[in-house]
Amino acid sequence: MKNKKESALSLTQQEITELLKTTPSGIKKYIDELEGQIKNLSEIGVALSKEKDTGKLLDTILLEAKRISSADGGTIYMKTDDNRLKFEIMMTDSLGIHYGGTSAEPIPDTIYPVKLYNPETNQPNHKNVSAYAALTGKTVNIKDAYKEKGFDFSGTKGWDKRHG
């Protein structure tokens, strides 16, 4: 692993290939970590199936997704009847942010839902990463929003400027 925090499940194919070229102990360590991750995911699955509180359920899902992907932050959205993605939970460890879910802090009123479609053209919103993922069903992993060229992160950058 590159660092202690990084999950075995968050490695890229290239990183896995490089790891497999290393000593047998490196391969054994990687397999052991994967087995631990799978066991942990199974335990989480059982716990989630028993949880009745939606806020706790969504918090747990987001926390585990962040842990598995070694992410600093994450957001859970809910689709609205008017084709928007409403922020339900926001977490960013480096900024000490936890809004929505089980937090006492609600999502700020200044954070508007993400439009899934352009209101003028009715074309899919593929500029916003959350809208793109929701519309296409594809998983998107952004290592650094400040270096990403494929999506518009002006909202994220503005948020960081105001709160970071």
Which features would summarize this protein structure in a list?
4 strands; 164 residues; alpha+beta; 2 domains
Structure described in brief:
Helix content is 42%, strand content 13%. By secondary structure, the chain is an alpha+beta fold. The model has no long low-confidence stretch (mean pLDDT 85).
The first-to-last residue Cα distance is 29 Å
Low-confidence parts = none
The helix/strand order is HHHEEEEHH
Rg, Cα atoms, Å: 18 Å
Mean pLDDT: 85
| Strand content bin | 5-15%
**Class from secondary-structure proportions:** alpha+beta
Q: Which outline best applies?
A: globular
Percentage of residues in helical conformation? 40-55%
Main sheet: strands, sense, barrel: 4 strands, antiparallel
Oligomer: single chain
The number of helices is 5
Care to describe what's here?
This protein is α+β, with helices and mostly antiparallel strands and 164 residues long. It has 2 domains: 41 residues; 110 residues, no CATH class. Helix content is 42%, strand content 13%. Strands 1, 2, 3 and 4 form a 4-stranded antiparallel beta sheet that branches. It is globular.
Topology:
Layout: H1 13-20, H2 24-50, H3 54-69, E1 73-79, E2 84-92, E3 97-100, E4 114-115, H4 129-136, H5 154-163
Antiparallel strand pairs: 1-2, 2-3, 2-4
